[in-house]
Amino acid sequence: MPEPAVKASASRGASYTTPPAGVMLEEIELTAASLNEPQSALVRARVVSPALPPPLAPPAVDAPRRSGGRRAFFVLFVAPTLAAALYFGLIASDVFVSEGRLLVRSRSSAATSPLVQGIGISRASDETFAVESYLRSRDVVTKLRDGDGLLAIYARPEADIFNRFPAFWTRDDFERLYEHFLSWTSTNVDEAVGIVTVRANAFRHDDARALADAMIRHAEELMNQLNARAFNDRVSAARKSVEEARGRVADVERRITELRNQRRVVDPMRESTAALEAIGKMTTELAQYEATLKQQIAVAPRSPAIPSMRQRVATYRSEIAQLREKVVGGNASMSQSLPEFDQLTLERSLDARALEMATFNLDKAEQESEQRHIYLERIADPHTPDHPEAPLRVLGFLVTAFASFGLYTIVRTLRRIALEHAP
């Protein structure tokens, strides 16, 4: 920037000063008083200077805004970090985790694994998911509460105020206990091999092991109940089939007895066969007697044996007629009873066969009821943990500190942008 050009005239060696920047063409009158000269003396000076903007004044410091920034730093970073240090350092209780693994198998005719194919044992996928669902149900919570001290496990003196049950902000009822149980236990099914992993958390290492063991024990009880229920149903169905078959056989026997009493015949088939054989035999004898009678009449018409021979022939003819009437006569003949009797005999044979099969199935069901068809095998028993797995104190503190600082940085940046664009 060029130096300002100053033209000045003064009397008696008067001095002058350069005017401030920003003055274009100004005349400054310096009185004699200002130059320590007589008032009559007048000094005129003409200053020529380029136009310059006035210097910017430094921005005023906004005390409320600066106080808001300090408040945000304390609320978003300092307070959460101190709270995390207090919780993880003094409040949070140690949590022990015990883990057990089990496998559900079933006895079947076709096994999926060549190792167990000979003995007919395969993995039971449906029962595996049934076990997992049962271990997450309210029924198992009820059994653990009533018989395994679940409430005492979750209310140990070692428990902190945030993780114990009941907490100061929750109700002491079954639903809250069930929700707490779900958050402090886990079950996982490996669908590839069918292994169920059971994990239980507690404030003491022996409580964690006892809780996991109790869960597996109740799962075994469930398998036993399923076995008993299945075989009881099967035995009951087999016994019902036997009773029904016996009832049908008894009904057929009663109807056959009524038919025999009504027709006065024991076995129409056998009796008709015997009657036909007798008719045939008597017909042959009758023919012989008639031939002898004719011969006797031709040889000796006045023989005294002829009347007796005629009487015998007449008797044979009468007996043959009676037998034929009995076999193929009217409504009382055996020919009328034979179809009904044959039908009843067939029904009795079928019902007797059904009774035999039902009795066999009942015996088989009773024998199989003594064996278990669904097995729950413990792959690994719950262990007693030596060290707590939670909380991760250092990691939790660092995560809280970094997250709080990141939140504070974001809020500070957004606030600065907002202030810069404020009117």
Q: Helices and strands in order, then pairings?
A:
Elements lengths: L4 E5 L15 E6 L12 E6 L14 H29 L4 E12 L13 E3 L1 H11 L2 H10 L2 H5 L19 H11 E6 L4 E8 L2 H59 L4 H32 L5 H24 L5 H35 L5 E7 L12 H28 L3
Antiparallel strand pairs: 1-3, 2-3, 4-5, 4-7, 4-8, 6-7
Helix pairs in contact: 1-10, 2-6, 6-9, 7-8, 7-9
Q: What does this entry look like structurally?
A:
Helix content is 58%, strand content 13%. By secondary structure, it is an alpha+beta fold. Strands 4, 5, 6, 7 and 8 form a 5-stranded antiparallel β-sheet that branches. It starts with a strand and ends with a helix. The relative contact order is 0.12. The N terminus is likely disordered.
**Which structural class should the secondary elements be placed in?**
alpha+beta
Please compute the radius of gyration using only Cα atoms.
Answer: 59 Å
How many helix segments?
10
The total of beta strands comes to 8
Q: Describe the biggest sheet?
A: 5 strands, antiparallel
Cα end-to-end separation:
35 Å
Globular, elongated, flat, extended or rod-shaped: what is the shape? Answer: rod-shaped
The quaternary structure here is single chain
Q: Order of SSEs, N→C?
A: EEEHEEHHHHEEHHHHEH
Quick overview:
The chain has ten helices and eight strands. With 423 residues, it is of the alpha+beta class.
Structure keywords:
5-stranded antiparallel beta sheet, 8 strands, alpha+beta, disordered N terminus, 423 residues
